[in-house]
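Example S7 (structure tokens).
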């Protein structure tokens, strides 16, 4: 799994765009989620629930208050 964010600092309120991806050499990825570090997260069902060997998504999130967040 890899995740990156743009921008990584600024003044709230601030929208951050995440670039995420995951892959596996065995089995299938059935579900995927991103925790934004402020008590919210986004959930994905991969390929309509059928799964896939890799998955990527680019969710965005609005951080309303200043702080340090670990996604």
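Recovered sequence:
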């Amino acid at each position: 799994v890899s995740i990156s964010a743009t921008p990584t600092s600024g003044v709230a309120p601030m929208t951050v765009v995440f670039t995420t991806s995951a892959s596996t050499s065995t089995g299938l990825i059935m579900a995927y989620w991103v925790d934004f570090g402020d008590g919210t997260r986004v959930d994905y069902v991969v390929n309509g629930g059928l799964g896939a060997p890799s998955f990527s998504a680019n969710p965005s999130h609005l951080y309303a208050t200043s702080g340090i967040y670990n996604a």
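Notes on this example. Residues 8 and 16 are 8 Å apart (CA to CA).
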